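Progress narrative, Year 2. Work on Peptidoglycan/xylan/chitin deacetylase (PgdA/CDA1 family) from Streptomyces spectabilis advanced from sequence curation to structure prediction during this period.
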Amino acid sequence: MEARKREGNTAGGGHRRPLEPLQRVIVMDNKLYDYSPIVEREPLHWPEGKRVAFYIGLNVEHFEIGKPSTSIYPGTMELTPDPLNHGWRDYGARVGFWRTMETLDRHGVRASVLLNSDVGDRYPQIIEAGRERNWAWLAHGKTNSDLHTGLTEDEERAALKDIVETIERTTGTRPRGWMGPGLTQTFNTPRLAKELGIDYVLDWTADDQPFALNEPGVLSVPYTVELNDIGLFVSKHTSGPDFVQMLKDQVDQLYAEAEATDSGRVMPLALHPFVIGQAFRAKYLDQALEYIVNHPGVWTTTSDEIAEHFRTQRN
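Result:
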């Protein structure tokens, strides 16, 4: 199907500029997965009768200086250097990561690390800390300064190979999961990633349960742009107490739905050390985890284990 669009522009003095030539906008159906209403699926059961599988997606990233990226103040993001925003992001690796790690340790939470491959050689202490804790490692692009898009198939195959092999070399574990920088991928990504041993992706935040993509052997595991510290704290200016209440409400609602339907749900929480790792937010993450991890219906796990358990059950 094609949609056609043209726009006119008005210039000063009320004169109308000539209409631009007709532009064709191609409307594509998403062939990566099929529609499946959650009310029509086979029941999904988690270990020990738990109802909600909870995991933390901890984004551990490297940002190149001189390239605009996630910013707390957009007014300087195009400058080189941009000390305000680049320093804010660097706080994550230098301080915020370690504060967040201590909070996870207190609650026995293993992180599912969304790892830029450049992190391994630049911040080896972070990798060592994660290895000591048996964290899960997912491929998350090379850096977070460039989106994973606009690549030819050969370019993408080479890029993915470098990312996956670098993560395996630095962490000692070959990643099974993928999430692109900024949740970006091409229509070829699931197929090309599967060639390298990737068997699930997080980019499509379309569900509360894992589901199979139309690329055989590749799953989509739930991730979140709603319960995401960048969106909540930076974009929406959510308060700490409201953050805690949102997480409580989320787990309570998912638990109630899972209990009513005898079918489990997934609750991801997306965190970035330069956001959640700020000192004044630490106690709110602590309070939220105290509630979630001790909820009798929650299985605290990793995205790797969620994918594996779902695959075993459905096969």
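The chain has one domain: 52-60+72-314. The first helix runs from residue 83 to 106.
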